[in-house]
Every structure is written in structure tokens, then in C-alpha cells.
Amino acid sequence: MNTSNFNWALIPSFLAALEHGSLMGAARATGVSQPTLGRHIAELEDQLKLVLFERTGRGLQPTAQALELAEAAHAMQDGAARFSRMASGSGQTVQGRVRLSASQPVACFLLPPILARMRQALPDVVVDLLVSNSVSNLLMREADMALRMVRPEQSSLVAKHIGQVALRACASQSYLQRRGTPQQPGDLLAHDLITGDRNTEIEDGFVALGFPASGLRHGLRTDDLNAQWAAVQAGLGVGFMSEHLIGSDPTVTALLPMIELPVLPIWLTVHRELRTSALMRAVFDFLADEVPQALSGPAKP
User: Fold this and answer.
1) Residue 154 pLDDT more than 80?
2) What is the pTM of this model?
3) Which of 103, 100, 111 is CA-nearest to residue 142?
4) Domain 166-263 belongs to what architecture?
5) Is 127 exposed, middle or buried (0-12, 13-18, 19+ CB in 10 A)?
6) Mean per-residue pLDDT for 210-228?
7) What is the DSSP string of the chain?
């Protein structure tokens, strides 16, 4: 193989297909279309003169050759990511672009007023906001900085615990007027619930309390957290949202304080190299100061 003509840009597509096991999963994770990913894989196989994946009805099955090449491919991508991070960290002026990753509710309800204040305080900083409920891979430069509900384990990342989000059962006043207000956890078995679809954390919580998941009634099931909140506001049923969000709408009432729902920590995470950049330090410090203040009061409508 002539390495001078090798297309190194094909490596991320190869790794995404390897990790997710299908073009659909890889496309969802990378934002690259399925046809483009398919062309990348075909081109890489042509350049290497190897078959990397067996196409099956259940997705892509990596060949033995693909698995052998995976370690080297990861090393190549890690090197490229480190090169990019070092270049980004070399600037010492508070201007430029910062790619920030956050979940849907944080990005749509908590962050906007904070970013508006940051725009005034740091007018030369532009934020590219990656909205996703999945954990973005900072090491691969999917984002420069992230607000996460879990602490990263990689030693190359700097993480600061800046707050926590308390969850509560809640429902709109219009729903409670129609269906009554639950007084005990067991009362929820007679109510329509708004829960996740593939995410079964709420059902698992009911099982832990001794209530069978088969006995639950659903008003709506969706993994889209913004859709869950909109459904609560519309009166579709009882949902499980953050106290911060519940406090933003006077027509929504918090319920059943005796139910101990998880308290989610918020970690602000950044690359260790980028933490030395004046741009990244300014944004990091601003968010570390503003997010806890915002969480201490209700979201503004």
C-alpha cells in the first residue's frame, strides 16, 4: 500500500462502524450520513485490499483483519486528537470558539440565560453547543468541554463537581384536577406515567419499591427529555423531572416528596491541555461560577 496516498480521514468512520456495529449506529453517533460512512468503509477496504466487515442483516460484523487493525487505528485517532488539543491550548487570548456538550434539559433550559450572560462578559467567545443525552467523547474532540452527570475516569481530563440536580415526581394542575393527587407511592399505579422508552430507570425504580413494572400505566414513553417535560406541562400524566425545571412553571406541581429519586451530580469537564488555554479557562471558570447559582433558583420562563 502506498502510504503517501492513504486517506487518513477514513479512520474515524472505520472506528465508528467498529464501535457501533452498524452504519445506522455509527451515523447516529458521528452525525455523518449512512451513505457517506458506507463509502468511507468501501474506500478504506479498497485502499487496504482487505475485507473489514461482513455485511449481515443485523449490521456489520468485523473480520479478524479489522480487529487486528483496531488498536493501530485508535492510536492514530488519539494522536490526531492530541495534536488538535495541543494546538488549541497554545492560544492565550480570550476569543475563539468553544464546543460545549450538554444534555437536552441542561442545554435548553439551564444554559440559555447563562450563555446570554457569558456573551456579555466574554463577547469574543462563540459557543458551539452539542445537545445530546449520550456522553460525548472529549478525548476524540467531539467537544472541548462538557456538562456531565457522571465523573469521567480518564486521567487526561479535568473535572469539577459544580452542582447537583434533584429529581421529583410532578404533574400539571390540569392533570391533577382530572385524576386526583397521589398521596403515596402506590397511588401512582392508578396514574398515567411519563417515562423513558428504551431507558427503563423509572420502571426499575418502581420494581425496587416492590411494584411490578407490568402494573404501570403509561401516558407517554419517550427517551427525549424535552418531550417528557412538554408532556408533563400538557397534562399527559405524572413525570419525573428536576426540581429546577419544575420550579420554572407555576402550573406544574411537585409530588410525593417521600420518594427518594436519584440526585444527579453535575461535572464540568475539560481536556487537561485545554485547561491551560486562556479561552478555555475563562469559559470553564464562568460556567463553574454560574451553573451552581442557576441551580439554586428556579429556571426563568
Assistant:
1) no
2) 0.61
3) 100
4) 3-Layer(aba) Sandwich (3.40)
5) middle
6) 86
7) --GGG--GGGHHHHHHHHHHSSHHHHHHHH---HHHHHHHHHHHHHHHTS--EEEETTEEEE-HHHHHHHHHHHHHHHHHHHHHHHHHHT--SS-EEEEEEE-HHIIIIIHHHHHHHHHHHSTTEEEEEEE-SS---GGGTS-SEEEESS----TTEEEEEEEEEEEEEEEEHHHHHHH----SGGGGGGSEEEE-SS--HHHHHHHHTT--GGG-EEEEE-S-HHHHHHHHHHTS-BEEEEHHHHTT-TTEEEE-TTS-PPEEEEEEEEETTGGGSHHHHHHHHHHHHHHHHHHTSPPP-
Tell whether the model's pLDDT for residue 299 goes beyond 60: no
One fold for both 3-82 and 96-161+266-295?
no
pLDDT per residue over 16-34, tens digit each?
Answer: 888 888 888 888 877 788 8
- Find where cell 401512582 sits: 188
- What residues form DSSP beta bridges with 253? 171
CATH number of 3-82: 1.10.10.10
Please state the three-class secondary structure of 148-214 as a single string.
ECCCCCCCCEEEEEEEEEEEEEEEEHHHHHHHCCCCCHHHHHHCEEEECCCCCHHHHHHHHCCCCHH
- Domain positions in the chain: 3-82, 96-161+266-295, 166-263
The pLDDT, as a whole number, for residue 138 is 58
Q: Do residues 100 and 112 lie in contact, with contact meaning Cβ atoms separated by under 8 Å? A: no
Q: Which CATH architecture has domain 96-161+266-295?
A: 3-Layer(aba) Sandwich (3.40)
- State CA 104 to chain mean position distance: 7
